[in-house]
């Protein structure tokens, strides 16, 4: 068993990632209302869709206060490590690779915004949450803070969210969400 806690951002203090047999197990530590909400939110969203640019949820377990999710193994870690060459064995990304990663992350976001019955706002797109597989294919990860927007079957109506329900990384979230606390189909 190998622990990947050095790949986590400062926000992920309540998580622990472990690799077991080429799968990643994400343990949600603690039993606060917030941790339980994040766990359920991630499962509810990831069970609904499959896309080549979204990390694949393989399973989950909640037993005796422990909450774990199991994901496909994404061999090249997070984009942040590649951009800032945290591993001396990593070659710097070429500009062509960087552009490809940006386009693939955009495909994942486009799917979340238009490819499902209800718009999904990730709310935490950071270089830590864009993972790269063995072929450097970008996969969006960490849906703990994601929000559901309007249904596509109805007329889009802005949805307000309360200040205390907003989570994500400021500077990486749409300004309309962080400033106005309003979700619209435009985002």
TrEMBL record:
Listed Pfam families: Pkinase
Residue ranges constituting the Protein kinase domain according to the UniProt record: 1-187
Cellular component terms (Gene Ontology): plasma membrane; plasmodesma
GO molecular function, one term: transmembrane receptor protein tyrosine kinase activity
InterPro entries: ANXUR1/2-like, Kinase-like_dom_sf, Prot_kinase_dom
Alphabetized Gene3D superfamilies for the sequence: Transferase(Phosphotransferase) domain 1
PANTHER family: OS07G0166700 PROTEIN, TYROSINE KINASE FAMILY PROTEIN
Name of the protein in its database record: Protein kinase domain-containing protein
Organism of origin: Clitoria ternatea
């Amino acid at each position: 068993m190998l622990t990947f806690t050095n790949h986590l951002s400062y926000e992920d203090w309540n998580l622990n990632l472990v690799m077991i047999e080429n799968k990643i197990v994400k343990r949600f530590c603690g039993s606060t209302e917030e941790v339980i909400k994040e766990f359920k939110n991630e499962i509810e969203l990831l069970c609904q869709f499959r896309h080549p640019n979204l990390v694949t949820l393989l399973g989950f377990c909640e037993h005796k206060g422990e909450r774990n999710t199991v994901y496909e193994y994404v061999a090249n870690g997070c984009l942040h490590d590649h951009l800032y060459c945290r591993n001396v064995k990593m070659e710097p990304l070429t500009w062509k690779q960087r552009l490809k990663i940006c386009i693939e992350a955009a495909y994942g976001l486009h799917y979340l915004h238009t490819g499902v019955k209800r718009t999904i706002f990730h709310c935490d797109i950071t270089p830590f949450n864009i993972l790269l597989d063995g072929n450097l294919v970008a996969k969006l990860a960490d849906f703990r803070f994601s929000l559901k927007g309007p249904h596509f079957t109805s007329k889009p109506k802005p949805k307000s969210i309360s200040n205390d329900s907003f989570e994500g990384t400021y500077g990486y979230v749409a300004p309309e969400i962080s400033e106005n606390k309003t979700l619209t189909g435009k985002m």
